[in-house]
Amino acid sequence: MISVFASSGQEPLFTIANKLPVPELVVTEWAIIFVIAAFAYLATRKMERVPRGFQNALEMVVEWTHDFFGGMMTKAVAKKWMPILTTFFLFILVSNYSGLIPGASTVTGYKVPTADWNVTATLAVTVFLSVQVAGFREHGMGYFGNFIKPMPLMLPLNLLEEVVRPLSLTLRLFGNVFGEETIIAFLLMMAPFFVPMPIMALGLITGAIQAIVFTILAASYIGAATGEGH
Questions:
Q1: What is the pLDDT of residues 105-137, one digit of tens each?
Q2: Distance CA 168, CA 210 (A)
Q3: Which residues contact 140 (CB under 8 A, 6 or more apart)?
Q4: Maximum pairwise Cα distance, the chain
Q5: Cα dihedral angle (67, 68, 74, 77), rounded to 10 degrees?
Q6: Full-model pTM
Q7: Which carries the bigger pLDDT value, residue 71 or residue 228?
Q8: DSSP state of 108
Q9: Using CA atoms, how far apart are residues 10 and 114, in angstroms rounded to an integer?
């Protein structure tokens, strides 16, 4: 899930064919995507009826996300959209936790993806588009008729609500992760070993919470768009 805004305002780490600039942010995203893809490959290359190892771990993640986030929509809708919701959760979780790796910030080409608004905005726009597609697939053109309910005069407010959602998702995730990264970096300068440890330990909890909250909101938006009352 590469940010479509990632090249704006960032110095490229290197270029491809002397034409395509690749900033640090994209390199870190590639690394995270590779880790998730490698884990998925190892978990599914030799599927067994009684899961174990990587397969067992992946099935636990998939079942948990399906039970937890899928409860906000019908089973039919959940079956269609849980893959992307699970991807959101895993990508944000791994991205958040990548900022807790000791010494990672000193590695050339490293930048926590979710601490950059380019990535959080891209994720939020993806959620926005997914909601519209999900609503249209379930209700057809009737989905767009809901923007003028309960009366046509509500159209501006209903459209504003749809636009504010991705902005809210962007700023919430970006602000939390960026603030945490800034505090840790500041404390590392003051006391490199001891002071940041409690903050990093807390980051294990907040990193998971941020991934859960983002995915819950995405699931609730899709559930609302596809529900009978929409």
A1: 666 667 788 888 888 888 999 999 999 999 888
A2: 13
A3: none
A4: 60
A5: -90
A6: 0.78
A7: 71
A8: T
A9: 15
Q: Enumerate helices (H) and strands (E) in the chain, giving the number of each.
A: 7, 2
CA torsion sign for 104, 108, 114, 115 is positive
Average pLDDT, stretch 154-164?
76
Residue 178 or residue 48, greater confidence: 48
Calpha distance 64→108 (Å, rounded)? 35
Least-confidence region, from 152-156, 181-185, 206-210 = 181-185
pLDDT at 4 over 50: no
Radius of gyration of the chain (CA): 20
Q: What is the DSSP letter of 6?
A: T
Tokens 């994209």 sit on residue: 26
Two structure tokens written together for 93:
């979780």
Report DSSP letters for 68-91, one per residue.
HHGGGS-HHHHHHHHHHHHHHHHH
Beta carbons of 184 and 203 less than 8 angstroms apart: yes
Between CA 59 and CA 37 the distance in angstroms is 15
Instruction: Say what the pLDDT of residue 46 is.
Output: 84
- Residue 183 contacts residue 199 (beta carbons within 8 Å): yes
